[in-house]
Amino acid sequence: MPHLRLRHGLVPLLHRLKFSPVVSIQGLRLCGKSTLARELLPQALRNAGRSCRFETLDSARTKDFAQKNPEAFLTEHENAHPLIIDEAQKAPDLFDEIKRSVDEDRRPGRFVLLGSTEFSTEFRVRESLTGRLSKIRIYPMNLAETLELPCRAATGFHTNKTKPRCTRKDLLRYIGRGGMPSLFHVRHEAERARLFEDWIQLTCERDVLQAKKGKIDTDLCRRLLELSATLEEPNAAAMAARVRAGGKKIATHLNILTQIFALVELKPHPLGSGKPLYFPADCGIAGVLGADFKRRLQTWFYIEAFSQHSYADLPSPPRFSYLRSKTGNRLDLILEDARTITAIKLMDEERFDRREIALLSSFSKKIAASGKQVSLFAYGAIDAPFKDGRIAIRPWESVV
Asked: What sign for the dihedral angle of Cα 55, 58, 60, 63?
């Protein structure tokens, strides 16, 4: 079945379980967290001679027991290693009991907590596991996962200099369908759109209401998702102007949509102008929300970058940002760590216009004094990679 395909997040999960007593797997609704923990992880642990137990707080009875009797709940499953708890944020009091248990027994791999919201006080989850919790972010299947290709992003996104592993047809199909495990494989277009619409409705009418701080406007949440897919500059100010709402209200709702992973946030680079941008969490979702080809391409590109870095499990992951020039031109992605800076321009048209990549050169000059190693790349609808000065230009699909 499509949803049982190997997930690249399994490798960092198994690694974290060797060192941390508590590991969380967090990501948006239906991105494959439960399948990873319920099907793929137990199989890998059995191969290593270990057993685990899966409990979901989507069950009203289990949730009630865990919330009202957290100590008894953990004691009942004390022989499980690990105990996997799905939708853990639904029993906030359980976190304090896990903290107490871990403080008494620091063995690694004791608990795996799954959540479709960020574990935070915003969602009534106490920050009791600070310093004890190792987090892994799971995204919808990236293109390599949908094609059942092995993970090769050992050093993160954008290290591939070999021949693309997929075709342009594979990429365009993915951009149209996205990578939601239970949705992307549905071939009938109208049925797939209906399933995506169900996901959007559940997200906006149920998931956002898990945030108990203040009044939540579910219609506004739906509208903000649509604007993230359609605005040229999907930032808070542009959204506030479009819906004629106050900035504080927009910021609150964007924060909630980000914490349930329905939106991904990209911050501006200090050398440019602009404000944080918000994009849909999957290009299939973006398409149903009204995104054009450019926005679906951007969404694919960002999810590809974020997921590859998440699964590479780097000790010091780079900072992600974008750069907007004073004239409104944009470098779509900048990755920066202590020693290197990588700047990337994503070209969305089949023709190649050298003026589109001029901002890469000017950015390189701006940061020359930083002493960091600088790499400049552009991705477009070209047949084969080539260089234009210091700028390496590659086909879209070479990032896979």
From this structure: positive
Distance of alpha carbon 42 from alpha carbon 26, whole angstroms: 18
Q: Where are the alpha helices (DSSP H) in the chain?
A: 10-17, 33-35, 41-47, 60-68, 70-76, 93-104, 143-146, 168-177, 189-205, 218-230, 236-243, 247-259, 283-288, 293-312, 358-366
pLDDT for the residue numbered 126: 59
Q: What is the mean pLDDT of the chain?
A: 90
Q: What is the DSSP letter of 320?
A: E
Cα separation, 132 vs 324, in Å, equals: 38
Question: From CA 279, how far away is CA 39, in angstroms rounded?
Answer: 30
In angstroms, rounded to a whole number, what is the distance separating the alpha carbons of residues 364 and 367? Answer: 5
Burial class (CB in 10 A: 0-12, 13-18, 19+), 275: middle
Distance CA 224, CA 129 (A): 32
Q: CA–CA separation, 111 vs 73, rounded Å? A: 13
Q: Residue 173's Cα: distance from chain center in Å?
A: 20
Q: What is the model's pLDDT at position 158?
A: 66
| Mean pLDDT for the stretch of residues 161-180 | 91
Phi/psi of residue 201, each to 5°?
-65, -45
| pTM of the shown model | 0.93
**Pair 134, 5: CB distance under 8 Å:** no
Per-residue pLDDT of 353-374, as tens digits, reads: 888 899 999 999 999 888 899 9
Sign of CA dihedral 161, 166, 167, 172: negative
Look at the block and give the residue holding tokens 């790349």.
377
pLDDT band at 121; cut points 50, 70, 90: low
pLDDT band at 2 (very low <50, low <70, confident <90, very high): very low
